[in-house]
Amino acid sequence: MSMHPIEHILYFSGILIHWVIPSHPLIAMFHIFHAGIAPTAGHTGYEKMIFKNGKYIQTGDYNHYLHHKYFECNYSGGNVSFLDKLFGTFHDGSEEATQEVMKRLKNKSYL
């Protein structure tokens, strides 16, 4: 499982708006489909998809890649990365940050 069950409940809770504010079933279905499929682009391992004409689509960000590489860093993403800075889990890609994460992993005890 990639997310904790509570994270799943919170992530998909936005869909409940369709029971509060009546909407067309196709809109609700699109919302459910988008919530389930949209994260795949950011998990391809590529930063962007480049087309023949030189245009590109941004598919992910480096901080999210670092979260998957080390897991003990960059829990928040996008516009809320200040939370990682606040709680000391921000990794900027530098060697110093990597050493800090590795030290944290080494000191972590698993029961």
Write a compact overview of the structure shown.
The chain is mainly α and 111 residues long. The chain has a domain at 61-111. The chain has helices at residues 5-12, 17-20, 25-37, 62-70, 82-87, 95-107; strands spanning 48-50, 56-58.
Overview of this structure, please?
With 111 residues, the chain is mostly helical. It has a domain at 61-111. It is 48% helix and 5% strand. It has six helices and two strands. The protein has a two-stranded antiparallel ribbon. The two termini are 20 Å apart. The mean pLDDT is 85.
Rounded mean pLDDT score: 85
Tertiary shape: flat
What is the helical fraction, as a range of percent? Answer: 40-55%
Number of helices: 6
- The helix/strand series, from N terminus to C terminus, equals HHHEEHHH
What can be said about the biggest beta sheet? 2 strands, antiparallel
* C-alpha termini separation: 20 Å
Q: Strands of the largest sheet, in order across it?
A: 1-2
Structural class: mainly alpha
Radius of gyration: 18 Å
Sheet-strand content, in percent, reads: 5-15%
Q: How many beta-strand elements?
A: 2
Unreliable spans: none
- Regarding quaternary structure, what we see is single chain
